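Feature request, filed as a ticket because there's no other form

It would be nice if the structure record came with a short human-readable summary line next to the tokens. Right now we just get the raw output. Example of a typical job, pasted below so the devs can see what we mean:
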Amino acid sequence: MEALFFLAHDEFTGKPQVARPSLEICLIGAIFCDLLFTGRISVNDGGPEATGKSGHGDRASVAVLAEIAAEPVGYPLREWIDHLRPTVVDMVVDQLADAGLVTRISERALLRRTHRYPPTDVLVAAAGLTEIRAAVLGPTGPDVYNVSLALLAWQLGLDDVCEPQVDRRMLRSWLDRAAKPMPPAATEVLAAVEAAIAASVYGGERR
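Raw output as currently delivered:
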């Protein structure tokens, strides 16, 4: 989740490089994937359920898990995405700032306030990009973590992460192959993310 946040911002200035709605949706997708891969949630009948497995995670993931565990009604993934969107970016920024990984900077320009989050360590900020490139170009190969990160980055429109060695068409082909062995629950999460972004971009949002 932190890796995706850094991918979505300039590695030096910390300025957002993607649309805010898409960032919200994909961050939630990243949190869901982390909870899935660590066994803390499952996906049943299209909705997330807490498994009861304990585990130490980052603050944002723990907060989302607590909400899922406290909800007696089984809502679909899409509804959870819509519910969590208003707070997820602030949760992640708070987590990164408290850990000393970013600096918060607010600026006023053209009668509106903008926010950027320059990283304190460029190597940490570049870790997600390095992970994706190592999976696509070698030597690490694909796993559930780097494939889900690459797929979420693609949904954000970050389709140049492996250039110049791999262009957009080649990356899409790699993603299609790498996604096939993904766990069905992760595939459901990623499909819900894609649907939520489509609704955000083309209309029909539920918010």
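Something like this underneath would help us a lot:
Residues 9-202 form a domain with the yeast vps74-n-term truncation variant fold fold (CATH 1.10.3630.10).
The longest strand covers residues 105-109.
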